[in-house]
Design goal:
mainly alpha; disordered C terminus; globular
Length: 288
């Protein structure tokens, strides 16, 4: 098994991540009346994170754990990147929602900002426990640098975005995810491009990937407080099906792709994958 995993670490990772996560949430799919949180946390934990650690251990040995885990604490990034990570999704979603729904949404946001901002920050921090803290070490910490090294930055981001969206499929059967599966797919593809761009500009920080993922979820969650009560049927359908994030992230991803000429700030010198799938960036960040 070690030989097969060493030859195909990405295939092994995704097979493990899907299998372990879907098995963990199976009781919730079979009985949606149960409280979802314990199953969702377990599914995320035993899926991407555990799978990444298993594949790392089999392909590189225990010595690979230290540089990998060190990236959980890698906080050094410019102020601009911290602002993008913490508030970029909130600002972008609010602007696009105001265009789609109407300018009264922007007025409601500004008039309630004293209440919304603390709620948003609390939701962002608390929300990390329900998914991003356990997901991102696998998706962006392990899979992304290898996908970029193998397929290039844009194709790698799209492959990860597609699989990331597909991984959420049980949520539609178990009832803890609403909206349109197509909107989730579009959001997953577009947001994966944005996250890859931020990842490449923050030296592969797992910490910032966790916070960026959580900030998106928090921004979507607090949006309910500023939605007008007199939404039209068309606007209501767009909001409830999840197309506001899909549209927002698609526009942002398009800007990133055009501005970076499809490179997403990826540097072959900074992030290299050798034939065994070892991330050179992880080695460099771990120190001597």
């Amino acid at each position: 098994m070690r030989t097969a995993v060493s030859k195909h670490p990405l295939v092994a990772f995704f097979l493990l991540a899907f299998s372990l996560s879907w098995i963990a949430v199976l009781p919730l799919v079979l009985n949606p009346a149960q409280a979802p949180e314990p199953f969702l946390i377990l599914g995320a934990l035993v899926g991407p994170t555990l799978s990444a650690l298993i594949v790392l251990g089999l392909t590189e040995g225990r010595s690979a754990f230290r540089p990998f885990l060190a990236r959980y604490l890698q906080w050094r990034a410019g102020l601009l990147w911290w602002l993008i990570v913490l508030f970029g999704a909130l600002v972008a979603l609010t602007i696009v929602a105001a265009v789609v729904v109407g300018p009264q949404l922007l007025g409601g946001f500004m008039s309630n900002i004293g209440r919304l901002l603390p709620t948003y920050l609390i939701t962002l921090l608390a929300g990390t426990i329900l998914g991003p803290l356990w997901e991102e070490p696998g998706w962006r910490g392990f899979a992304l640098p290898r996908l970029q090294g193998q397929y290039g930055p844009l194709a790698g981001a799209l492959v990860l975005g597609f699989l990331w969206a597909l991984w959420h499929a049980p949520g539609f059967f178990g009832g803890w995810l609403g909206g349109s599966p197509l909107a989730l797919l579009v959001s997953g593809l577009a947001f994966s491009i944005i996250m890859s761009w931020v990842y490449n500009n923050t030296r592969g920080s797992i910490l910032l990937m966790i916070l960026l993922h959580s900030s998106s979820s928090a921004a979507i969650s607090v949006g309910i407080f500023v939605l007008p009560s007199n939404l039209s049927a068309a606007a209501s359908a767009l909001v409830n099906s999840g197309w506001i994030p899909a549209l927002t992230y698609s526009l942002a991803a398009l800007v990133v792709v055009l501005a970076s000429r499809g490179r997403l700030s990826f540097s072959d010198q900074e992030i290299r994958i050798d034939p065994q799938g070892v991330n050179e960036q992880e080695r460099q960040m771990s120190g001597p």
